[in-house]
Amino acid sequence: MSGPKKQILVNAFTMNCVGHIHHGMWTHPRDRSLEHGELGYWLDLARTLERGLFDAVFIADIIGNYDVYGGNVDVTLRESVQMPVNDPWMLVSAMASVTEHLGFAVTANVGAEHPYTFARRLTTLDQLTRGRIGWNIVTGYLDSGARGLGLDGLAAHDTRYDRADDFLAVAYKLWEDSWDDDAVRADRAARLYADPDKVRPIQHDGPFYRAQGYHMSAPSPQRTPVLFQAGSSGRGQRFAARHAEGIFIHAPTPQAARKATRELRQAVADAGRDPYDVRIYVGIAVVPGATDAEAHDKLAEYLRHASPEGGVAHFAASTGIDFARYGLDEPIPYGESNAIQSAASAARERNATRRQLLEQHALGGRYHVVAGTPASIADELERWVDEGDIDGFNLTRIVTPESYQDFAELVVPELQARGRYRTAYAPGTLRERLLGGNGRLAPRHAGARAQRLADLTF
Ligand SMILES: Cc1cc2nc3c(=O)[nH]c(=O)nc-3n(C[C@H](O)[C@H](O)[C@H](O)COP(=O)(O)O)c2cc1C
Question: Where's the Luciferase-like domain (predicted)?
Fold first, then answer.
């Protein structure tokens, strides 16, 4: 590869709950996830991540519970597999108050929100954090959540994305089109707070949403928050190509990542955007040690606390398949899914039995795990970035906050020495840091102010 080496972007991947990806790890004596209901836990985490110069804390969320495995929530509750799960957005102001640069990429399900009120909430947070907000747009994959919201069940997979498109159309109009940059004057002498000629109501009459009115908040530094997305079915890729600025993919190898990034960048180009106007992330876990032996001893110790069954209960909800119904070595009829199609088709390709699934979830989850010295981990991360054509990682917590601390103390200096990781934060908003430019949606993005938004529909 010629030219300067690509800098590696890193988000801390977590959730406002006990078990997130590596299920069972709450039983480890050093794990602090049992404290997720305490503000101190989140403030400590924010400070740790900023010391490690992480780009952002990426907070996953679900609406509903995992009740597919065994047709109930027994394993889900016993192992605390994302149940209980608290609201992720309530953490942001507090974590922002003890940091200056750390970004917040936070998940919200469009099916549980209305764009008129949601857009105001994010504008508020983007003001309070001076432009550090990102939104991980999800469409939901749990019938339990849909039932909780009063529906009979989830809408069809592609229809969920159609609704999300329409949600975004309303949100772009509110964020980008309702207030001009110079609308707020706050001129005491002239008794002019905002110039009425520079503020206008939006009008939207789409297939799912109707909205008419002014954006309730004045513009925030980024206007539209940095948009993240994580679905990778065909319809999911089309949605990502249109909207996403950060895309989170699941890939077992750098080669698989390369295939996914090639498709995604092509889809972004087909949507009229620059294929490198998106940052692509892979989820990964690292276990660094001063020596190889130390790292592998630590991994062995972690493995003793993990719950493979908790991991499979999580995977059952992702794919919509009740694995508990099958014997350990019985073939499982993998079919079509209305849940996460990309997870279901990957499972179909692997065609694993329940015994094999339990083995794949040895550390409670299916994320790729790299254990070794800081130098060998840095080699592996560089290989993923260069061979997979990705931009960075969502780093999972095995034991929290230990996994993030280990990364910051052991791996970051090694990546810095290789010129692959920042040595200080540059000033500016989250979007400026991740994507450069003037901090606004790129001019060719469908939601940008440069476009004619008044009649935007998708
Ligand atoms: C790596 C990854 C992370 C995801 N994180 C979340 C999440 O935090 N909350 C959620 O509701 N869905 C999450 N999803 C589900 C996606 O947002 C999307 O709804 C799902 O993948 C269905 O899209 P697909 O069929 O296009 O893959 C995630 C998916 C992937 C692949």
Answer: 33-388
Could you identify the atom of ligand 1 that is nearest to the CA of residue 157? 25
Determine the straight-line distance between the first and last CA of the chain, rounded to whole angstroms.
Answer: 38
Ligand 1 atom closest to 250 (CA): 1
Residue 161 in tokens = 């994305």
Q: Within a domain: residue 447?
A: no
Range of the domain at 121: 9-184+192-435
Residue found by looking up tokens 């001893």 in the block? 297
* CATH number of the domain encompassing residue 346: 3.20.20.30
Ligand 1 centre distance from Cα of residue 23 (Å): 18
Task: State the DSSP code for 259.
Answer: H
Whether 456 is covered by a domain: the verdict is no
Let me know if residue 108 belongs to a domain.
Answer: yes
In a domain, 90, yes or no: yes
Ligand 1 probe mutation, 57, 141, 237, most atoms within 8 A of CB:
141
Instruction: With CA atoms as reference, report the closest residue to 352 among 319, 385, 318, 329.
Output: 329
Q: What mean pLDDT, rounded, does the chain reach? A: 96
Identity (one letter) of the amino acid at 129? T
* Structure confidence at residue 1 as a pLDDT band (50, 70, 90): very low
Domain count, the chain: 1
Q: Please give all residues whose beta carbon lies within 6 A of any atom in ligand 1, as ranges.
A: 60-62, 107, 109, 138-141, 157, 230-233, 235-236, 248, 250, 283, 340-342
Confidence band of 441 (pLDDT split at 50, 70, 90): very high
